[in-house]
């Protein structure tokens, strides 16, 4: 009869703080298991930055211009 050791607990991410995981630890835990435990299960909320409709339209125009310029190689 073999007794397998209890799996190590992966320390959770602490939002607003730097959390560092060693590559050796991630490898030991297993990459897929690590991602299952640490990855968010739902989309992260985007905070309202307070831009007006005109500012949002201007930013959309600038992004469109940049994409067009990138396609032309400028």
Provide the descriptors you would attach to this structure in a database record:
74 residues; mainly alpha; 3 helices; elongated
Biggest sheet features: none
The proportion of residues forming helix, as a percent range, comes to: 40-55%
Structural class: mainly alpha
The count of helical stretches stands at 3
Quaternary form = single chain
Q: Name the shape in a single word.
A: elongated
Beta percentage is under 5%
Annotate the secondary structure layout.
Elements: H1 23-29, H2 31-38, H3 53-72
Overview of this protein structure:
- The structure is a single chain.
- The chain is mainly α.
- It is built from three helices and no strands.
- It is elongated.
Brief write-up:
The chain has 74 residues and is an all-alpha fold. Helices cover 47% and strands 0% of the residues.
